[in-house]
Structure formats: C-alpha cells, structure tokens
C-alpha cells in the first residue's frame, strides 16, 4: 500500500492575503507545494490530502486543484474549523485562532487508512527528504506506535536574513527521538551558529544538529492518540483564546509516556522557505537552479 501525503494548508489564505494572491516562485509559476507533491509522487506516495479552511474551498477548487489535473494521484480535501471538537467540548466565545498543527493533522482521520506523512504547504523539503520518508513509511503498513520524522541538519535550514525558530531534536543511540525543544532564536554569527537559551544567553550549537521542520510520518493509530491528548488539552487550556495544540507537543507526550517511538530519519536535503519577505529572491534563484540542474522538468 502506498503512503499518503497530508499537506497542512489551512493557513495559506491568511498568510498570503487570499488564495488568488498566491505567488508562484518557480520559473513557470510553480508553488512550493507543487514541488513537494512532485517529489512525493516519484518517491512512491499514492494520495494527497489537503487540510484547508471551509472559507478557502471555492478558491481552492478554482486556483489550486486544476494544477493537478492529469496526474495519477488521488486527491482528498478535509476541513479544519474551530468547532470541530470532540463530543462534550465547545469553542469558547471570541476565539478566532485555529487550534494548532496537531488539530490540523486530526482532520485527516476520516480519509486516511494507511501510513502517512505530514508537511507544511509552504516549505520546500527536497528530493532526498521525501525519498527517505517514503522508504520508511512503506515498511509500516502493519505497524502501530512506530512513527518517524525527517531531521534536517540545522545548518541547512537557516535564513540569511535573520534569526529563525527551530525544533531542536535529541535522539538516542538507535536514532529514536528523545525530545524536541523549540528554540525561538537561532542565527548564524561569524560562521558560528548560536541560539538564545532560556536565560537569554547566546549559546553555540553544532550545525549538524537535527531539527524538525514539520515533516513527520505516522500510522493511522496516531489519530486515536491525538484524540485522547486533545481532550486533555481542551480540559486544561480549551477556554484560552490563543492556546494551540501543536504537533511536537503531541509527539513529545507520546514519547515521554513510552506510548510510541519516533525514528529520526536524516536527510541531505536543504530546506528553504520564505521566512522573511527578503528571502523570496533567494528562493526563486534556488528553484531556478534546481530546474537548470535537471532536478525538475522545465
């Protein structure tokens, strides 16, 4: 059975001011997720699930889905909304912020029955990253509680324009993830990579340290674990207007309770995205170069 690719795209409209204004960054107007889907299909994925907001539906059908006509791939669309909650819970009055990335993943439960990957819509992950992820997921068809994440080398994820936030990972001798710590300020200074610790001190960090860029692999049992964890989250923070149920939080919870293991898959791919608007020319140039090198068809 071929694995499925779940793309978290519910934030696309708000980030870009509406889907009509989505900028094509490739030489032929390609969106970043066009490359992700292309790389996923040639790595062996068989279905794509988009998580969007209901308000994006018409624009999505008009401007996004036609890009995939003629491709031999099944497409599913699921919706992330504030009122999609477990029985017994209600969205607090005044809340506008989405419930977070792991809530977005949970929306795939109705259409996914096979091992699946999770990615952001607007991040470029690279050919090798999809290859190593697909190869691992193909081994998990009859498994439970054995997940994975693609660990990018920190030095391959930095922006030339300023500090970035990254989930810094630690792993054991068997390459199983032991923790993720969100470092909200990482920057390259004088050929050294440094992060700001909890005491606001700048500390050096090895550029080969694996970091999470929200590229995960799960089996369908992850949905039931997420439901349980989400109910606990809602009991504790559900009345807050801005608290979010993040994917790394859920994964960390399962690791710490020894419910699941998460294999860290290392990749040679170089992640990039438009963290700052000044990053756009660099992204455009990189994509042009990949086309010229024959990685993608012109």
- Look at the helices and sheets and give the structural class: alpha/beta
Number of domains: 1
Roughly what fraction of the amino acids lie in strands?
25-35%
**Uncertain regions spanning at least 5 consecutive residues:** none
Oligomer: single chain
Q: Main β-sheet: number of strands, strand sense, barrel status?
A: 11 strands, mixed
CATH class value: Alpha Beta
Structural Rg: 19 Å
Topology:
Layout: E1 4-8, H1 12-16, H2 32-43, E2 47-52, H3 57-64, E3 74-79, H4 101-106, E4 116-120, E5 123-124, H5 127-137, E6 146-153, E7 164-171, E8 177-189, E9 192-196, E10 202-204, E11 210-218, H6 221-237, H7 247-256, E12 261-266, E13 272-273, H8 280-292
Helix pairs in contact: 2-5
């Amino acid at each position: 059975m071929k694995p499925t690719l779940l793309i978290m795209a519910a934030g696309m409209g708000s980030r870009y001011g509406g889907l009509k204004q989505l900028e094509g960054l490739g030489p032929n107007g390609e969106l970043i997720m066009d490359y992700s889907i292309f790389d996923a299909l040639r790595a062996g994925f068989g279905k794509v699930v988009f998580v969007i907001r209901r308000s994006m539906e018409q624009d999505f059908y008009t401007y996004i889905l036609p890009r995939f006509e003629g491709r031999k791939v099944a497409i599913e669309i699921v919706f992330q909304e504030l009122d999609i909650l477990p029985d017994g819970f209600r969205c607090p009055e005044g809340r506008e912020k989405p419930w977070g990335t792991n809530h977005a993943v949970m929306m795939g439960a109705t259409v996914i029955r096979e091992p699946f990957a999770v990615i952001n819509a607007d991040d470029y992950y690279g050919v090798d990253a999809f290859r190593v992820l697909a190869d691992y997921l193909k081994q998990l068809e009859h498994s439970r509680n054995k997940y994975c994440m693609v660990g990018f080398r920190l030095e391959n994820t930095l922006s030339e324009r300023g500090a970035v936030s990254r989930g810094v990972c630690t792993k054991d001798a068997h390459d199983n993830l032991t923790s993720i710590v969100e470092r909200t300020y990482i920057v390259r200074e004088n050929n050294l990579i440094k992060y700001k610790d909890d005491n606001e001190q700048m500390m050096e960090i090895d550029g080969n340290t694996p970091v999470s860029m929200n590229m995960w692999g799960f089996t369908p049992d992850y949905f039931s674990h997420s439901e349980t964890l989400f109910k606990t989250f809602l009991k504790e923070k559900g009345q807050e207007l801005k608290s979010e149920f993040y994917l790394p939080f859920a994964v960390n919870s399962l690791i710490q309770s020894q419910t699941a293991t998460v294999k860290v898959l290392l990749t040679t791919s170089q992640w990039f995205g438009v963290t700052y608007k000044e990053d756009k020319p660099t992204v455009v140039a990189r994509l042009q170069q990949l086309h010229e090198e024959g990685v993608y068809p012109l």
